[in-house]
């Protein structure tokens, strides 16, 4: 009897007959790379980018992870970064927020006379002055603090308990689910409620740009849908600009206006999210089909 083909979970969901190693995915993704002029990236951002990264070289210690990396996203748009493990996706977010060494290039927020070069600002100044907030991966809440105390921690740069309290109340007004648990310790919340708290804590400083790292990680499907509904509301109702890394590439591309495929610290592909969803090679490598 002939051997059955090996079946295993795809890169994110579904099943495939051939299991690709991480190295195989990276190598085959590399073959998809084409030169993408900056004008095309700006066009995806409606030719009015609000968050821009230009020719960025960045990494950790002396190791360069991003190589002349360029990105543009307009105000009120969302952009999702996908790619194989080790491609540099989270390094993009880390660089925007000030967690990496910058070897060259620039990062700006705003446009026209309001454009601000944030390349080498501290994380505190990026949050307070440039209104850029980072929503970390799972387990970033303070488990032995209450929900309210966690929100107040999000306002630590306001230098006034009254201002932080008022900001927390605005969050409670928006999310009744958190308001009902304001006195509960964060460690007793469900996974979805913890993620809502992580997002809400970032909103205390009223940011314009949200850097969202793996919003679906560790969540049950019903909570994943809830989190993406919250992000959709923040983008389309409140006009937030969202730059996201999402391992569930299908979910991320369904959500985002723009998708970039990263390989080895460089852009391999860039297109509207729905176009990348329909690309058979992207589907084979990253969508489990």
Question: Would you kindly provide a written description of the structure presented here, covering whatever features stand out?
Answer:
By secondary structure, the protein is α/β, with parallel strands linked by helices. It has a domain at 8-48 and 75-99 and 124-141 and 189-286: Rossmann fold (3-Layer(aba) Sandwich). Helix content is 37%, strand content 25%. It has helices at 22-30, 38-44, 89-97, 123-128, 147-154, 161-174, 176-179, 191-203, 221-236, 249-255, 273-278, 280-286, and strands at residues 8-9, 15-16, 49-60, 63-74, 78-82, 101-109, 116-117, 132-135, 209-213, 241-245, 258-263, 266-272. The protein has a 6-stranded mixed beta sheet with strand order 8-9-10-5-11-12, sandwiched between helices. Residues 1-17 have low confidence and may be disordered.
Keywords:
alpha/beta; Rossmann fold; four-stranded antiparallel beta sheet; 12 helices; 37% helix
Structural class: alpha/beta
Percent helix among the residues? 25-40%
Number of strands: 12
Gyration radius from CA atoms, angstroms: 19 Å
- Total helices: the number is 12
Low-pLDDT runs of 5+ residues are 1-17
Please write the string of helix (H) and strand (E) elements. EEHHEEEHEEHEHHHHEHEHEEHH
What's the N-to-C terminus distance?
Answer: 27 Å
User: What is the CATH C-level name of one domain?
Assistant: Alpha Beta
**Overall mean pLDDT:** 90
Task: Note the beta-strand portion.
Answer: 15-25%
**What overall geometry do the principal axes of the alpha carbons give?**
globular
The major sheet is characterized as: 6 strands, mixed
The name of the CATH topology of one domain is: Rossmann fold
Oligomer: single chain
Q: Going across the major beta sheet, what is the strand order?
A: 8-9-10-5-11-12
């Amino acid at each position: 009897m002939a051997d059955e083909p090996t079946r295993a979970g795809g890169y994110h969901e579904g099943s495939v007959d051939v299991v690709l190693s991480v190295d195989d995915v990276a190598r085959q993704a590399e073959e998809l790379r084409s030169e993408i002029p900056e004008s095309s990236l700006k066009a995806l951002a409606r030719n009015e980018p609000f968050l821009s990264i230009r020719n960025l070289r960045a990494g950790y210690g002396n190791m360069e992870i991003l190589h002349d990396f360029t990105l543009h996203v307009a105000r009120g748009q969302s952009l999702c970064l996908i790619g194989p493990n080790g491609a540099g996706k989270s390094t993009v977010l880390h660089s925007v927020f000030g967690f990496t060494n910058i070897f060259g290039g620039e990062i700006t927020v705003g446009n026209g006379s309001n454009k601000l070069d944030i390349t080498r600002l501290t994380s505190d100044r990026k949050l307070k002055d440039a209104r850029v907030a980072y929503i970390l991966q799972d387990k970033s809440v303070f488990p032995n603090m209450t929900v309210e105390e966690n929100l107040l921690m999000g306002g630590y740069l306001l230098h006034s308990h009254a201002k932080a309290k008022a900001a927390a109340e605005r969050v409670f007004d928006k999310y009744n689910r958190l308001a009902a648990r304001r006195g509960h310790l964060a460690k007793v919340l469900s996974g979805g409620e913890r993620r809502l708290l992580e997002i809400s804590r970032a909103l205390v400083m009223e940011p314009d740009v949200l850097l969202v790292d793996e919003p679906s990680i560790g969540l049950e499907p019903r909570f994943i849908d809830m989190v993406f509904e919250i992000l959709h509301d923040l983008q389309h109702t409140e006009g937030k600009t969202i730059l996201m890394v999402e391992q569930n590439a299908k979910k991320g591309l369904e959500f985002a206006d723009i998708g970039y495929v990263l390989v080895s610290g460089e852009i391999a592909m860039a297109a509207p999210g729905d176009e990348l969803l329909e690309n058979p090679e992207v589907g084979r490598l990253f969508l489990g089909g």
